[in-house]
Design a protein that fits this description.
Elements lengths: L1 H47 L4 H21 L15 E3 L6 E4 L4 E4 L7 H5 L8 E2 L6 E4 L4 E9 L7 E5 L6 E8 L4 E6 L15 E4 L6 E10 L3 E3 L2 E5 H36 L2 H20 L2 H6 L4 H27 L1 H4 L1 H20 L5 H27 L4 H24 L6 H47 L11 H18 L3 E8 L2 H8 L1 H17 L7 E6 L2 E7 L3 H17 L14 E7 L8 H17 L5 E2 L1
């Protein structure tokens, strides 16, 4: 029988070992060389502050491919010690209350998925078992069954009952068999694909009683199988320690879930007050993250739906997809990717579309395919968000700084968690803790960012209200045209200039002149000229869609328009609209080469060039207006 086990071991492992040894070294060096060159290119790009979207997308793909490469290369390391002559774990009354089992465990992969349990527990395949050399047995995403084996030697009758605990709640099937030298034996069959009542001990993890009271040698074989990550953190623990750790864990997780729940209601009430899509999206994100954390910790199965294992398995991937779909929507809204970085916005929309496809496929695609994707795709999305936020930080966007700080922590936690699930990193407690810390810090920081946004809106609203009150109180309206007069224009230009300098936001200015207006007055009379000025002023005013934009009569047939938070490109769009609107009025003007009333417009912006005062901004707009008139009128110059 030992020969059968040896043949099985050679068939399962020897060819793979040869192939791996043959291809591994050049592949690693080629990829590492490529990554180092790209890292140097990225670093030089940062130093010059000339960051391009294509470069960052390339870096994003390389980083993600690095994770995929090592995820596919990394497997549970193994020695070649057969378990048939292994030394048992010594256990007495002086042993620690909780003992992690790592090198005491031997394992074997059952690729055929059909090896009889009685032959394995009978020792016929002991020579095919390999010693685990990781801190925690972790086989990544592998749907094949794995058999694990260890021995315990009880050197004296124990004063306290001990249990075997597998501290990972997402193993689909666990078949455990034990026997001792006193002739006793037993077995347990459980897993998160079975109702919770099948567990021998009520706990969010898998806990099994073992006969460790009397002096004997106990031999344990257990088979684990899962469509998700196959992580098997195994411990021997006393009843007292088990109850104590369960209470502490429940308390800490309760605080964690409670904090997330508070953030859900907090952001929801912010949405009710502000009525902006970003707040609704983020409320859904935090709620989905909270539910994901509850399900991921095992409490969902234990306390919420103990009789619905299949539903909970699919709910887990659905919640993850919903969270990351709305995370993408929220980020696009919060970082204004559509207007600021159109190409990266398209990349973000592609990631969102992939999550939508993932969500729709969750009803018919097997979990063994869905779960690895749910570990890899979030890294792509969060790396993309970090790239976008870095670009926004270089544009002096204060909100992006908060977003970047939040997602750097979130990215670290997500990568550690994903690498653990893929079998690359073997510490389950650290991975879960890193994800929770990254998630909670992310939620808190982004919520603070949203509050900062509310405060900014409130401050701007108060400023606009104050401006409107001043306009009403001081009667700063031009009586002929009904728009603001020169005095109000000068006040507003100073105020908006100071705000632009304080917030590092753009400020644009339009100077507008009615073409051939003196000839119009001479031909049609001053009353008709006044009527044209009024109509032109109102049509220009209708081209402004924001309450912060302001038009005034600067003098004679000249108008000034102040456009806060508007770069030169946006100001040109507004100017073109005004030019076309006036021309479309079709006011007859026989002395004009265009046979109708038209305007010329000069544009200036404080971020378009080095401008140090509002007077300089006004002077540039006035000069550009002069150039537009010199060019033939009915034109825009900037």
């Amino acid at each position: 029988m030992a020969r059968a086990g040896l043949r099985f071991y050679i068939r399962e492992n020897f060819p793979i070992s040869l192939i791996t040894k043959w291809i591994r070294t050049p592949k690693i060096f080629d990829i590492l060389r490529l990554r180092w060159n790209l890292f140097r290119y990225m670093r030089e790009g940062f130093k010059r502050s000339k960051i391009r979207s294509k470069t960052f997308v390339l870096i994003l793909l390389v980083l993600a491919s690095s994770i995929l490469f090592f995820a596919t290369e990394k497997k549970a390391e193994s020695g070649k010690s057969p378990s048939e002559n292994s030394e048992p774990l010594k256990l007495d009354n002086h042993s620690p209350e909780e003992i992690p089992l790592s090198k005491e465990i031997f394992y074997m992969k059952d690729s055929s998925k059909s090896l009889p349990a009685n032959e394995i527990t009978g020792g016929e395949y002991d020579s095919a078992f390999r010693r685990n050399t990781n801190r925690i047995p972790n086989f990544g995403y592998d749907s094949s069954p794995y058999w694990l084996h260890f021995k315990i030697e009880v050197e004296e009758p124990l004063s306290e009952e001990r249990f075997l605990k597998i501290e990972y709640p997402h193993l689909d099937k666990i078949d455990l068999y034990w026997k001792d030298t006193l002739g006793r034996e037993g077995e347990f069959h459980t897993g998160d694909s079975l109702p919770f009542k099948e567990r021998p001990i009520n706990d969010r993890f898998f806990v099994f009683p073992l006969p460790l009271e009397d002096k004997s040698i106990v031999e344990v074989y257990f088979k684990v199988q899962s469509e998700g990550s196959l992580t098997v953190p195994t411990y021997l623990i006393t009843r007292t320690k088990l109850e104590e750790s369960s209470k502490i864990s429940l308390l800490l997780n309760g605080i964690f879930f409670g904090a997330l729940g508070v953030m859900v209601f907090y952001n929801f009430f912010l949405f009710l007050g502000i009525r902006e899509k970003a707040y609704l999206y983020y409320t859904i994100v935090v709620f989905a993250f909270t539910l994901f954390a509850v399900l991921g910790s095992g409490y969902g199965f234990w306390l919420l739906l103990p009789d619905a294992p299949k539903f909970l398995a699919y709910l887990f991937v659905i919640v993850a997809a919903v969270a990351l779909i709305f995370l993408g929507l929220f980020s696009a809204e919060y970082l204004q990717t559509k207007t600021v970085h159109p190409r990266l916005h398209i990349a973000l929309q592609v990631v969102i579309a992939l999550w939508v496809v993932y969500l729709l496929s969750a009803t018919f695609v097997p979990l063994r395919i869905l779960l690895p994707i749910s570990a890899i795709l979030p890294i792509f999305e969060i790396l993309l968000l970090v790239v976008i936020s870095i670009l926004r930080v270089f544009q002096n966007d204060r909100r992006a700084k908060i977003f970047l700080a939040a997602w750097v922590l979130g990215l670290i936690g997500t990568i550690i968690f994903s690498l653990n699930r893929l079998g690359v990193y073997d510490s389950e407690p650290v991975a879960s803790g890193a994800l929770k810390f990254g998630l909670l810090s992310n939620v808190i920081l982004l919520s603070l960012g949203l509050v900062d946004r509310i405060n900014a809106f409130r401050k701007e609203k108060e400023e606009y209200k104050e401006r409107a009150d001043q306009l009403l109180e001081l009667s700063l309206l031009d009586p002929l045209t009904g728009v603001a007069n020169r005095r109000f224009f000068d006040q507003e230009l100073d105020r908006e200039w100071n705000r632009s300098v304080r917030t590092e936001r753009p400020l644009s200015l339009l100077m507008i002149d009615v073409d051939y207006f003196k000839a119009f007055n001479d031909t049609y009379g001053h009353l008709k000229g006044d009527e044209v000025l009024e109509r032109v002023a109102q049509s220009l005013k209708e081209c402004l869609n924001r309450s912060s934009d302001m038009i005034s009569r600067y003098g004679g047939e000249e108008f000034g328009v102040i456009l806060p938070d508007t770069p030169v490109e946006g100001a040109i769009v507004v100017a073109l609209n005004m030019l076309q609107t006036v021309e479309d009025m079709n006011i007859l003007h026989e002395k004009s080469p265009f046979s109708r009333v038209t305007v010329s417009i000069g544009v200036s912006s404080n971020l378009d060039r080095e401008i140090h005062s509002p007077e300089e901004l006004l002077g540039i707009a006035d000069k550009n207006l002069y150039d537009a008139k010199s060019f033939g009128r009915n034109h825009i110059r900037h």
